């Protein structure tokens, strides 16, 4: 079976991972989830990768889980329960790997992102979309509440906006997705890759060590109570100041010269 994830690494360490099953609207089948999880895991360990961009071939970023695959599993003696549990666990592990990846992960959306596809967008650290893109968590329309997409969605937008998407299930526009905080910015399709690449290139110039420290701290402190969050973040800042890149960055700023990162 052909690979469902294309990859390209630029000279400055920007890795593009492209969902490549446009005939199935880049559905998050068990195979697609496995390939994407492996690609994220490999990138997390690679010293050559500074930033990851997720995009897709075809008119859909991702239409969510493969409903034909789910329907076929109902023929099993347990009506698909074992497969459904495995699929949900694998998908959750892949989404969690994106959040825990020490490299910033950027979604680039030019088309629809629905259900688990919308979950994938919400799981990324940043997201940029064409102004014709649309987003939805439409499971409620087919008797299947988008409970797992809800986890990522509710951690990115306010409760009432998340519930509106989950309870109604309608498509929302890219401008509305930007307004509620699901994505960062929109542009026309022709300019999308250039805009995303410019953001990725800017991030790739930073110390990879500093980025990994900051990303981990961001997600760790989110669910802490205020005093605990400040205590935790203060410890992170102290450790960061004692890294070689922390010392180099401050020295370079004081001396008015570009820093030379060692990622140490």
UniProtKB/TrEMBL annotation:
Keywords: Fatty acid metabolism, Lipid metabolism, Lyase, Transit peptide. InterPro entries: ClpP/crotonase-like_dom_sf (IPR029045), Enoyl-CoA_hydra/iso (IPR001753), Enoyl-CoA_hydra_C (IPR014748), Mitochondrial_ECH-domain (IPR052377). It comes from the Bacteria. One of its GO terms (molecular function) is enoyl-CoA hydratase activity. Belongs to the enoyl-CoA hydratase/isomerase family. May play a role in fatty acid biosynthesis and insulin sensitivity. This is Enoyl-CoA hydratase domain-containing protein 3, mitochondrial.
